[in-house]
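User: I'm putting together notes for a lab meeting next week and I want to include a structural view of one of the chains we've been expressing. I don't have a solved structure, so I'd like a prediction I can at least talk through. The sequence is below, exactly as it appears in our construct file.
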Amino acid sequence: MKHIQKVKKLAKFLDYLLGRRPDEFGLCPDEDGYVKVKDLIKALGEEDGWGYVRQSHLREVTAALPCPSVELSGKRVRAVDRSQLVVPDFPATVPKLLYYPIRQRAYPVVLEKGVKPTSENPKIVLARERSMAERLGKRMDASPVILTVNTDQLTRLGAALNAFGNVLFLVDSLPVGSFSGPPPPKKPPETKVAEKSPPPAAPKTPGSYLVDLSSEPGSKNKPVKKDRKLKNEWKRERKRRNRR
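Assistant: Thanks for the context. Below is the predicted structure for the 244-residue chain, given as structure tokens.
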């Protein structure tokens, strides 16, 4: 296949993906029709034959073709023709269960506080099928946690639910009580740190020992010398007797 034909084939596929049915690929454009380039590349990587696509290939589509199918704006991309793009709508029927992926490390917080929108993601994207939720979860976590959302409980708690195409649903929040999940991970028991005994005191002069100089070696067995005055006292006593 010639290179230009490969570019045209990519442009045609992007026209369908971004301009008609992004929901089939787990993508939800913003109000202006844009999706993040990184999210698009992850979605393309899951499709056979499109794993090679990078941002450089998107730029090539916009530059090499006289009528490009997409346009780039910084780190976002959208279809030029969005006349057939699906839009959020009130669903005619709602499945009893929907599915939502979250990061594993966020699971304990979600169990306690639920899921709320952010400035980066103003809408929470739910999947009709668990397989799609797992697909979305793998894009952000190697082992995502999949929440099972009870739509009856969700509407009772006041959440507004809209359909986006045939695959996704959008909701403004997931309050506690509207979903269930696997048991939370158990915290590992705290191990007590054994108290360390203080190390023996080091000698004042490393690598040596102190010698007791108060007594010389063998001083205990050495006989004590008598005072010379006492030693000759008997001679002086004998001289005194002779004088008398």
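A couple of points you could mention at the meeting. The chain has a mean pLDDT of 87. Strands lie at 35-36, 70-73, 76-79, 97-102, 124-127, 145-150, 161-164, 168-171, 179-180.

User: Perfect, that's what I needed.
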